[in-house]
Amino acid sequence: MSRRVWLWIGFALVHAVVVLLGFVGDHAASWDVDQLYRWWASRALRGEAVPGITEDWVYPLLAYIPILLAGAPGSAVDYTLAWGLIVTAADAVAFGVLVGRARSRGRVLAGWFWLAALLALGGVGMYRLDGFTVPLAVAGSLWLVGRPWLGSVLLAVATWIKVWPAALLAAAVITVRRRLAVVGGAVAVSALVVAGVLVAGGGPHLFGFVGDQTSRGLQIEAPVSTVYMLLAAAGVPGARVVYDDELITFQVTGPGVEGVIAAMTPVLIAGMLALAALGALKAWRRAGFAALFPALALALVLGFIVLNKVGSPQYMTWVITPLVIGLVIDRRRWIAPAALALVILALTQLIFPFWYDGILGLTPAAVGLLVVRNVLLVALFAWSVVRLARVRVRPGPGPRSQRLRDAHRRDVEGEPGPSPIP
User: Fold this and answer.
1) ∠ CA(147), CA(152), CA(158), 5° rounding?
2) Residues of the chain with pLDDT > 90: what percent?
3) Is the peptide bond before 148 cis (omega within 30 degrees of 0)?
4) Which has the higher per-residue pLDDT, 94 or 419?
5) How many angstroms separate the CA atoms of 12 and 104, rounded?
6) What is the residue range of 352's domain?
7) Which of 97, 162, 189, 290 has the smallest number of CB atoms closer than 10 Å to its CB?
8) Could you give the angle at the alpha carbon of 345 between the alpha carbons of 332 and 119, nearest 5°?
């Protein structure tokens, strides 16, 4: 059989396994879908309340797209199963865009990596909003060069479902030559969403999700929480795991934690701006899209994770997209970080749902597993920053030369250029 057939057989088997993982262990991996998403969908479909319109919500408004789609069949199909099938369908479309006819070794390797990543992370990677945004992000990133407007629209839609694809949009604006098309697509989607919310009378709640995120404490899985988890496991007075009833998350507290909580949002903003500035400098010095975009995208995505005080296990799905693009473009350079990412994803599945009770109980082995995962995550972030810093710039005339002016003219006039994504 051809490589393409084997890829699609692998796709079917992996998704069947991951869908089933949402139904084992008392639905632990799919709890958010089975309980929260189902509840939100039923309230909206019955006209009782629409969070994001009638009240503040933790997610951007387009998160209702998959939530309501899963509830549309009603009692004919179990809500959790419907969610798994919707994510599988979205993955299938993006997977088809990625592998095509399976003639490119880079695309074939990227396809197998994506499947391995889904299996390594397990049910939590599918049964969250993040699972629905990954195929949008993959397809959008693949189309940034040949169809920048369409690629930007997909990334913008994904961002209005879950904020993290904003990192990919930022990388696209910095690295894509036809950046006016990228900006235009994102602005068009955002304008439609804002206009729809205002017409529906939800203006006061439009950006409620921003406040919900900034007001959070230190979630136990976040890298910044590692020290406090070790202190709590060691029995240091004041260091302990606490439950937030409003956000339905477990957080960690300890000596000086309020100062750390207050510092993390500025640290996250400063870190992301610094990475974006480095990427912009590389682009200004004429670094190519093929080298710059995946490095900058991975650095920004990992910055969102490593510098964040929130660290839910589904966040690990975010690394899939930039690594897929990196493998498509340069499989030899990107295979090592992709392999490290698979280890991180597998450890994350062990952490949640399998060892989560042990972590909450501060069992030394479980806390140690969390520490190892976070150390590897920081190591991958460090690799991405070094890779970004080492992206080569093109020699030749400076940025104010006639050559750059000619390139800018081609961008504005929309002349197509050669695609760096094989």
Assistant:
1) 130
2) 79
3) no
4) 94
5) 21
6) 3-393
7) 97
8) 90
Please indicate, yes or no, if residue 225 is contained in any of the structural domains: yes
pLDDT in tens, 16-37: 999 999 998 788 899 999 999 9
Domain count, the chain: 1
Q: Which two tokens mark 26? A: 């008392």
- Quick one: which of 182, 106, 171, 183 has its CA closest to 147? 182
Is residue 76 situated within a structural domain? yes
Q: Which residues pair with 242 in a beta bridge?
A: 251
Total number of residues shown for the chain: 422
Q: Does the reported pTM lie above 0.85?
A: yes
Q: Distance between CA 266 and CA 86 in Å, rounded?
A: 37
Q: DSSP alpha helices (H): ranges in 143-236?
A: 148-159, 166-175, 179-199, 208-214, 226-233
What is the rounded (10 degree) CA torsion for 346, 349, 350, 352? 160
- Do the domain assignments include residue 417? no
Question: Among positive and negative, which fits the CA dihedral 385, 387, 389, 393?
Answer: negative
High-pLDDT (> 70) share of the chain, % = 92
379 inside domain: yes
Closest CA to 279 of 298, 306, 307, 304: 298
Model confidence at 202, pLDDT cuts 50, 70, 90, reads confident
DSSP 1: -
User: Helix or strand or coil: residue 252?
Assistant: strand
| Predicted confidence (pLDDT) per residue in 331-342, tens digit | 999 999 999 999
* Residue whose structure tokens are 């975010």: 318
Torsion 338-340-345-349 (CA) sign: positive
Tokens of 358: 């042990």
* Helices and strands (H, E) in the chain, number of each type: 20, 2
Q: Which H or E element spans position 299?
A: helix 289-306
Please determine, for residue 137, whether its predicted confidence score (pLDDT) is greater than 70.
Answer: yes
Closest to 362 in 3D by CA, of 259, 241, 194: 241
